[in-house]
Amino acid sequence: MRKPTLEEVAAAAGVSKMTASRALRGAADVSRESVLKVSRAAEQLGYVGNRLALALSSQRTNLVSVVVPSMSNIVFAEVLAGISAGLEGSGMQAVFGITDYDPLKEHVVIRDMLSWQPAAIIVTGLEHGEETRRLLEQAKIPVIEIMDTDGYPIEFNIGLSHGVAGEEMAHALLGAGRRKFGYVGSALDKDLRAAKRKLGFEKVLKAAGLSFIAQSIAPEFSSAALGKRLTLEMLATAPEPDCIYYSNDDMAAGGLFACMQKGVAVPDQVLIAGFNGLELTAALPVKIATSCSPRRHMGEMAARIACRALTDERATLTRRIVFTPEITLGDHAMPDKQA
């Protein structure tokens, strides 16, 4: 079936082709009456305009580029859901690219996305290659870096300090009376936020005269299956820990199943702690300790700042917004609650 043309939309609305074009891209000098007539005609005819072609004249599309490292982890799906909610009603549309935690792939994704002339770009993390950072600095559009605040943002920054998150969890677990800590993690050379949490955790242990009695770190990306395998290996070879800190909740969930398989009581014998506060932790047979990060809220706020930064408000907007994750020790009974 032949696609309807802009000329046909203009004829159906009783306006010139130029007016129809300007009405469809939201030009301010077109009357509301004309906009309504053109919009109604376009809808009736099933006309879909070429936004990229319109961008040649406006120097901007209605796209907000979003760059995330993975879609296999529910965390980033929730971030995208927040971004979608934040853009609702704005006329902007999110498009996303996946980097697989690869700096070279991130450079290609960001370079290609910028070639589409997006209105703004939302990028996960603060660590970028030198050439990638230069691309973002020279983009002349709002740049919003999310999820992490441990570093030097280009413009806007929304997230949490992962180093502090690791420190706070270590303080909470020490306060719960745990002293023999193991660590289970994955792909720390790529998942830099998990690596920062581990460093923060170790900093507090060192100050307390402690260190990890055992560590098991794999190069693969996180999963419950990987967490279970690494935990079984640790329990079979290491002095028995009374707490295991995991790079995230996926890994920690696997660790719980490993302990159940080995007959290790959680949390009495081993307290299991993760990060993210995923919904799945509420369905586990034992509630694990975790840090709950407001990732959907981060995404929603990033989208709203992207939209506001396209107006005259840009210079007055807050440049950095830092969230504090909420820690829960799951089914562990705090000593002061036992009295």
What summary fits the major beta sheet? Answer: 6 strands, parallel
**Low-pLDDT stretches:** none
Taken as a percent bin, the fraction of beta residues is 15-25%
- Would you report the number of β strands? 12
Assign a percent range to the helix content: 40-55%
**Oligomeric state of this protein:** single chain
Strand order of the largest sheet: 2-1-3-4-5-11
What CATH calls the topology of the largest domain is: Rossmann fold
CATH superfamily grouping of the largest domain: Response regulator
How many domains, as an integer?
3
* Inertia-based shape: elongated
Query: Given the helix and strand composition, which structural class is it?
Result: alpha/beta
Domain HTH lacI-type: 4-58
InterPro entries: HTH_LacI, LacI/GalR-like_sensor, Lambda_DNA-bd_dom_sf, Peripla_BP_I
Keywords: DNA-binding, Transcription, Transcription regulation
GO molecular function: DNA-binding transcription factor activity; transcription cis-regulatory region binding
Describe the overall structure.
The chain has 339 residues and is an alpha/beta fold. The chain has 3 domains: 6-49, lambda repressor-like DNA-binding domains (434 Repressor (Amino-terminal Domain), Orthogonal Bundle), CATH 1.10.260.40; 63-160 and 295-325, Response regulator (Rossmann fold); 162-292, Rossmann fold (3-Layer(aba) Sandwich). Helices cover 44% and strands 17% of the residues. It has helices spanning 6-13, 17-24, 32-45, 51-58, 74-87, 103-114, 130-137, 162-175, 192-207, 224-237, 249-262, 295-308, 335-338, and strands at residues 63-68, 93-98, 120-124, 143-148, 156-160, 181-186, 214-218, 243-246, 271-273, 290-292, 320-323, 326-328. Strands 2-1-3-4-5-11 form a 6-stranded parallel β-sheet. A 4-stranded parallel β-sheet has the order 7-6-8-9, with helices on one face. Strand 3 (120-124), helix 7 and strand 4 (143-148) form a beta-alpha-beta unit. Helix 1 packs across helix 3 (32-45). The chain is elongated and about 80 Å long. 43% of the residues are buried. GO terms for molecular function: DNA-binding transcription factor activity; transcription cis-regulatory region binding. Residues 4-58 form the HTH lacI-type domain. It comes from Falsochrobactrum shanghaiense.
